[in-house]
Amino acid sequence: DGYAFGKLGVDLIQQRGQVRFSARVYQVFGGQIVPWSQPVSQARDLLQTAFELASLQGDWTYASFALNSLVTHMLATGGALDTIRADASRGLAFARKAGLEVLDRYTSQLQLAKMLQGLTTQFGTLDDAGFTVE
Predict the structure, then answer these.
(1) DSSP characters for 62-104?
(2) Which of 22, 31, 7 is nearest to 55 (CA)?
(3) What confidence tens digit (pLDDT) does each residue in 30-39 have?
(4) Are 113 and 75 in contact (CB under 8 A)?
(5) Which of 31, 77, 94, 125 has its CA 20 to 30 A from that of 1?
(6) Residue 18 scores a pLDDT above 80
(7) Which residues contact 31 (CB under 8 A, 6 or more apart)?
(8) Cα gap 14→22, rounded to integer Å
(9) Which pLDDT score, from 0 to 100, does residue 105 have?
(10) pTM of the predicted protein model
(11) For residue 28, what are the CA distances in angstroms to 89, 127, 128?
């Protein structure tokens, strides 16, 4: 039922050309609904669309949510760690520039990717030369 209701929201914004909340609808559907009922990979285009629309609309919070969800989904689906690191770094820079207090979301993703690549002080820790868990 949640998937059907979320899909209805997406269908309505597409059919009626709704712009005001379109980024938010795509982000919630792609970030929170699709992964529970469909293959996670099906959310990628929705989240990319959400990021682009939110950025165009100046909705920095939802742009950041969409980008963070994209990185989370790449981690969950075994995405390339170099790409994950690049996207998490891009999200971190975006959040800093927008003045958002979500830096920890991107930092944890970035450090996890580094750890999985053997770029932290030891496997199992997120610490490296530029980051220490306190």
Answers:
(1) HHHHHHHHHHHHHHHTT--HHHHHHHHHHHHHHHHHHT-S-HH
(2) 22
(3) 999 999 999 9
(4) yes
(5) 77
(6) no
(7) 43, 47, 50, 65, 66, 69
(8) 8
(9) 87
(10) 0.85
(11) 22, 32, 33
